[in-house]
Amino acid sequence: MSLPTSDFLLSLIVRDEPRVLTRVASLIGRRGYNIKSLSVGTTEVAGVSRMTIVVSGDRSVVENAIRQLEKLQDVIRVVDHALEKFVDRELVLVKVAIRSSEERVEVRHIADDFRARIVDVGRHALIFEVTGDEGKITAFIEQMRPFGILETMRTGRVALTRGSNADVPGHVYAGETRALEPAVK
User: Which CATH code of 3.30.70.260, 3.90.180.10, 3.40.50.2300, 3.40.50.460 fits the domain covering 6-85+162-180?
Assistant: First the structure.
């Protein structure tokens, strides 16, 4: 009997250096964890980046992944968002087929309901930009599916801890020497 799997949202505060992404992805891949999405970006602290990873597995698999990630020299901190309140968002671009002027009006009305922005207008297609949580993005795509989705691109989720429980490197890690010491190559 296999354990039920879920999606777990993790943020990694890491050094902004070459090959850090490769080391993180390799560790996760070697252990057979599935990465559903991965987003990486700089923070307001020079030399520090944030990775947001959605990993599928059971709780014990994810806890093991966290322990392994924390051992990597370039990882400053791992935040398991299942343990704290957080805000998460995703961005998607969706190209929708348009076959008539009536359909164009209908598609635009649906897009307005989702606060989707039109970012490209073509004779036979519109491209929408939508931001929101995973449920909103999925619902928008499902509403557009009957019209004919020509292409989509989702960024993957990004997340921050709510309120004063901030996991911001410049604030929380100012006293941690690991955050600022040079990485051992």
Answer: 3.30.70.260
